Amino acid sequence: MRILRNIFRRKLRAFLTIFGISIGVFALVVMGAMSEKLSLLVDGGVKYYADKVVVNAATSVLGLASEPLTMSKLRDVRHVPGVEAAFATVGILYDEELPTVSMGNIATLQGEDWEAARYESFKVGMAEGRDLESGDHGVVVLGNDLAKKQSAYVGKVLTIRDREFEVVGILERTLTSPDNMAAISLEDAQEVYKDTLPDALQSGVTARNLATGFVVYPEKGVDPDQLAATIERHVNGVEATGPKAFQERVVSQVSVLSSVIFGIGAISLLVGGLSVVNTMTMSVAERTREIGIRKAIGASSGQIMRQFIAESAVIGLLGGAAGLALGWVVAGALNAAGEASGNVLFLVTPGLAIQSVLFAVFLGVVAGLYPAWHAAQLNPVEALRYE
Question: How far apart are the C-alpha atoms of 166 and 139, rounded to whole Å?
């Protein structure tokens, strides 16, 4: 309690100092929450790619097809040594046009061979309803965020790409890409995909012969990265991506982006820390006679130093707690506002919350070192004469 009384002797100054720290922690929490969400998305991709190879046309961009693959290519891939099984997939935009502004995952329409589920290790549970089954036609399973965006429920009929689909299931929330996915049968997806092709191409192809990619499962003991290289050597016009290639392409870029985001938040907090230095320096100057009296009755330099460091640490703790609470509320409000458009961008993890407050306390201690050292070095006689 004595520490709090000392801090709030000058209430306005104390509140302004704590406010400065809290703004810095607020920026760190919000920026960090965005980075945590990005990291979670990448982790989901790493888990998905961990044991398989994804094959796209060599001209595809970000996994979205710029030209169709054919079933003859799939047969070629299945004959590559080391391939246990390979299945066609169709992945296109859920909406006909790319959103003008999107800070999160873009909603996609996915069609996969239901038999691939026997080999798939990346499982997503059902929140409501059921998963796709063999023979399904005209039904859709929605990711959790996409279901909220469409105000969908099991049994509701949605019009997707000018076709009607009944919602039969909603996936559990994963905070990763499947949250913005609509899964339909491969046959339905092929029909929808054919409609997106230019008229000149549509007349020369059948829907059942189309795919935008293949998912390849290696034989036991075969390295997926080596298999990806083997597929590219044996099959012309395809790009095969294994776990290592995904990490090199995506994880490194997101790590740099996360570092920049955290750096911006940390700089904001450092600026707030300067206010602690100013406040504690002024506090030492105002309490010079008090320090002199304490040293005259036996207080050691170490005790004086610990007293002021403790006060600056408490300022950091109070500012950190207030900034964390503010950041938590704002991130939650922004997520709630973004759910309608499928843009849930922030994830405040326990680790982020604890590290933000600890960093604020650490910064308070560091900022209070010089004022505390200066107070400890005061000569008691000169301090008692100070006016």
Answer: 5
